[in-house]
Amino acid sequence: MSGVAGRSGRKRFVPTPYHRDLVKLLTTRGIPQEHIRQLIRNPQTGRPVSAKTLRRAFLTEIQTGKVEFACQIARFVMDTILGRKPVNAKPIKNERLRVTLAIFVAKTRLAWSEANYHQHVRDPIDAQDPRWSVQSLERLFNDLARPASKADGTIRCRPVDVGSI
Predict the structure, then answer these.
(1) Which of 10, 31, 83, 134 has its CA 20 to 30 A from that of 147?
(2) Buried b vs exposed e over 40-68: b needs ≥16 C-beta within 10 Å?
(3) Same domain for 24 and 74?
């Protein structure tokens, strides 16, 4: 019984400081909540707490643990990329791996992308301009390809005025 008149059932789960520390530690390490709840036992039933009870009773620890976990990962990644010794970890000395990690961070967190040179953005030449029609371009190329002869027998290419086409 809950001890309150008109209310029946079990008492509400009250977390201990040990439970709070454990949940925060495991959340900081990136352990899923489903696994964490298996370790937190309700003293009234002896069974693991439900997912709803875990979120209700340990909301602050879960939220701060997620932020701390993200900060630890970010610190490790940045220390690795910059060649510094990460906190509580061995440094990665492989230069190729560090560059790969830097590219990964740039793509995922900084929204960088690789250039696609075959991507068609817009027409480079205004298609409505009559100077750049297929017939005009063919005439221009034919004129450029046909050498002009001088009277002395030397061959030279004739200059073509694009504006007059």
Answers:
(1) 134
(2) beeeeeeebbeeebbeebbeebbeebeee
(3) yes
